[in-house]
Amino acid sequence: MQDFLQQTLSGETPQQLSGENAHLRWSWWDEGIIEFTPHQDTQQAIVVSAGLHGNETAPVEILNQLLSQLLRGEKALVPRLLVILGNPAALRQNKRYLRCDINRMFGGRWQQYEDCPEARRAWRLEQAMETFWQAGDNLEVCWHIDLHTAIRGSYHPRFGVLPLNLREWPENFMQWLGAAGLEALVFHRAPGGTFTHYSCEHFNAASCTLELGKAQPFGANDLSQFAAAKQALAALLFGEPLPQSGEAPRRYRVSQQITRLSPAFKLHMSAETLNFTAFPQGTLLAEDGDKRYFVQQAREYVLFPNPNVASGLRAGLMLVEDNAHNEALSG
């Protein structure tokens, strides 16, 4: 296999399902799922996923460049690695999804949906992740990096979203996120149906969704914007030096979720509202029949505002700053 992305987009099973070179063995598990195993023993097992939304192509292109170096034998591999292109059918059509948003279906939530390609795919990805991590014992590093781009522009073009986690985040994981060029980190305070929440909750993985710029079609991405993220991934996979991190990411935590409850839902924000736009206390954010969402804190920042989601799904998150952490940065 010469090009994992092109093989996946072709929709065909590769003629060769496994192979090896001087540094590693590779095994094609399923459409868009490939495992790499270094010849030397390792206590590191890492999942890198991208393309759960089919119109978020920049991370897919970055990841494929790194995988091509592995497949050609140009780079040594440090950890066991599982690579997942989450929604190949949507990638082929440059659509966010075909029927349903796969990144709301994990943790068995796919069973609550009608039978559709994304529900079947979510189940398959859960199986793949379980198979991968069950093969390792006493892992020193168990990470899941899920690569995305945002629908809207952002005051922080590169940021990370971390799932609810009742344990301390590993220090080397947090350092890696800073080295990847992220300008902000958002911490969830409630469970969810995302791929990263699934890996964190079920496998104790250090998991983060990386949002890298704005969604563009294949070939229209300026990948130079994400050089730090690519270099950080190369450091993780190949054992190369981490890029020098600049200012540590600012930290936010989720204060409330805006949920679309019915077709009457109305979001009081323009289509041009950027992620991390600030709103003062008392601002009416959205309404849905008798339900109204207001800014509750002195200042809240919006993330992922999207009035066009299906009923019952998140139409936006409101954030507050982690003032103690951010003041320490500026001090």
Structure write-up:
This protein is of the alpha/beta class. It has helices at residues 4-10, 58-71, 88-93, 117-134, 171-179, 195-203, 227-238, 323-330; strands at 18-20, 24-30, 33-38, 44-50, 80-85, 141-150, 158-162, 184-187, 206-214, 250-259, 266-267, 278-280, 284-288, 291-294, 299-303, 314-321. A 13-stranded mixed β-sheet has the order 1-2-3-5-4-6-9-7-8-10-16-15-12, sandwiched between helices. It is globular. The model has no long low-confidence stretch (mean pLDDT 91). This is Succinylglutamate desuccinylase. Belongs to the AspA/AstE family. Succinylglutamate desuccinylase subfamily. It is an enzyme of class 3 (hydrolase). Keywords: Arginine metabolism, Hydrolase, Metal-binding, Zinc.
Concise structural overview:
The chain has 331 residues and is an alpha/beta fold. Helices cover 25% and strands 28% of the residues. It is built from eight helices and 16 strands.
| Structure annotation, total helices | 8
Order of helices and strands: HEEEEHEHHEEHEHEHEEEEEEEH
**Form type:** globular
N-to-C span: 51 Å
Number of strands: 16
Largest sheet: 13 strands, mixed
Structural class: alpha/beta
The amount of beta strand, in percent, is 25-35%
Cofactor: Zn(2+)
InterPro entries: AspA/AstE_fam, AstE_AspA_cat, Aste_AspA_hybrid_dom, SuccinylGlu_desuccinylase
Active site: 211
Organism: Winslowiella arboricola
